[in-house]
Each structure stands twice: as C-alpha cells, then as structure tokens.
C-alpha cells in the first residue's frame, strides 16, 4: 500500500539527483537487500490466472527513502507519476506486482525477474522502477536507492550482475520494457520554465 509521508514538502523546491552518499549506505555487491519470505507466494498468486500469452507488470516504487529529509512521495509530481504507473499496470498487465517499502530490494527485483523467466506463464514482463538516483563522481558511486538489509542500498549494474550470477540468470528473454524514471525533478521543473 502506498501512503504519503506525514511531512509536508516544499513542492516548488523539487527533488534533484543527489551526490550525497551517507556512510551507512551500502553499495555494489553488498547492496542486494534481503529476499522477502513471501516473494514467491506473491508471484505465484499474481500469475495464477494468466496463460502463456499474458503480460506481467512489475513495479518497484521505492518512494519512501529519504534524501535531505524528504522522500520522493513528498513531491506532488511523484504522486502523479505513481498514479500513472498504477494506471499503466492496470491497463497493460494481465497480472501486476506492485512492491513498495521494504519489499523494494535488489534481491526481490532480480528474484521476481528470474521467477517470471522460469515460470513462463507470462510471455512478456514490463518493469517499472521509481527511485531516487545518486551520482557521486568523486567516490565513483552511482545507482538507484532501494532498501538494503538494515539501511539504504545504492543499487547499480554491479549489484544486479552479482545477483544474476548468484541466481544463474543468463538471459531475461521475457523482459520487454524497462522504465527507470530516476528522480531529477528539480532539473525537470527548471526546464519547464
């Protein structure tokens, strides 16, 4: 369930791609997070009524992680994007799995993609991820923010490759569409003026 945070935001300020990396954030192969115990059950219940021609929409809405004391969901524009993602999942998907909060781990993401590849009830998988993006060129750290084991995880290609090897994923033939709207709302707002 998606719910707005209790903090009011300054909508005019916007949220920008951030370069601040906190010391307790994990990166690289340490940024996998935990596999939720019920991930497989969620997947099986979601796809039980589709046959080999169905479309599965996976949406990871990592909107609750705070940067500079604001979560993505504090920004009105993010709530509009979330509404559009939910509409997309409803209109395009024969089945949808929408994960929020602590379910938004790299391990859950890759595991669900692996299940979809192995199960074969869905002929196509559409992936939508809404997350903060970070880029710190000095520390050479970049990626999207998801949940780690007990902290924030900066998930990037290195993290996903590590998990793909761990799960022995060679190809994701069913993955047809990936949408990664990293939050850079401040720049978008400036461009609209």
What is the strand and helix layout of this fold?
Layout: E1 26-27, H1 39-47, E2 54-61, E3 66-67, E4 70-71, H2 76-92, E5 95-100, H3 106-119, E6 122-130, E7 133-136, E8 141-147, E9 152-155, H4 157-166, E10 175-179, H5 185-192
Parallel strand pairs: 1-9, 2-5, 2-6, 6-10
Antiparallel strand pairs: 3-4, 7-8, 8-9
Helix pairs in contact: 3-4
What does this structure look like?
The structure is a single chain. The chain is α/β, with parallel strands linked by helices. The chain has one domain (26-192): 3-Layer(aba) Sandwich (Rossmann fold), CATH 3.40.50. Helices cover 30% and strands 25% of the residues. The protein has helices at 39-47, 76-92, 106-119, 157-166, 185-192; strands spanning 26-27, 54-61, 66-67, 70-71, 95-100, 122-130, 133-136, 141-147, 152-155, 175-179. Strand 7 and strand 8 (141-147) form a beta hairpin. Helix 3 packs across helix 4. The longest helix is centred in the middle third of the chain and has 17 residues, at 76-92. The radius of gyration is 17 Å and the shape is globular. The protein starts with 25 loop residues before the first strand and ends with a helix. Residues 1-17 and 184-193 have low confidence and may be disordered.
